[in-house]
């Protein structure tokens, strides 16, 4: 049994140990939080690296399809260039935006949205047909009245000419008679850069009114088929080129995300080691303080 003289010293020692234990408990909580955050970032890094590998594999196929599609689109454009075909000015214009349904690919969709909004500032009566849900969601908030047609389920795989032909059939069935159709898509410059460009598809009246149209000796009966086939060629070109840009942008985005995750892992690893060292130092101080207090009793 302790004497009355020893009780105040023991009470003071207990209060000191309690004051030291409180911040130590907080250090343990912080250490667990850092460890959990570090584990979460490492898992994210694994996901982004895997998505980069998948995008790189798909990019090879997309670039092959893009090269093939340019043959279709550029041949049609060459015919209209040599025929000196021009759009009629007394009718409306339809803007077809070749987007996709998938994200995680940087600003590839928002770039076309900004270009479309600039065109709408010049011509507010412009009608829009959107291929893909991404640009539809962005333009639906600002310009829903201009949207006359939309397509979903695009971008899941490499586009085919059958997909473009189905889209062209739906567009030609619109009740409005358009002077021309401007198809906006992302042009593939290289693996790091792309830009929104426009290729034009003309109406039957514009094709028939071309200055050098007679040189091609095309019958009037097949003019409608020529116009629809040229529209499908241009849409296929736009979809294939845009798909290649999307895969390239997704690979770059996942590469940047993996690098950022690696930087965060390094920082949190250093913070974890320092916090753990601080906790160990605090425990040593408690043990030495407790041993010293016990030796003095």
Description of the structure:
- Keywords: ATP synthesis, CF(1), Hydrogen ion transport, Ion transport, Membrane, Mitochondrion, Mitochondrion inner membrane, Transport.
- Belongs to the ATPase gamma chain family.
- The protein has 297 residues and is an alpha/beta fold.
- It has a domain at 50-254: ATP synthase, F1 complex, gamma subunit (Pyruvate Kinase, Chain: A, domain 1).
- Helix content is 65%, strand content 12%.
- The protein is built from 6 helices and 5 strands.
- The protein has helices at residues 7-83, 108-122, 133-142, 161-172, 204-208, 223-296; strands spanning 93-98, 127-131, 147-151, 180-190, 193-202.
- Strands 3-2-1-4-5 form a 5-stranded mixed beta sheet, sandwiched between helices.
- Helix 1 runs antiparallel to helix 6, helix 2 packs across helix 3 and helix 4 packs across helix 6 (223-296).
- The chain is elongated.
- It starts with 6 loop residues before the first helix and ends with a helix.
- The model is unreliable at 1-28 (pLDDT under 50).
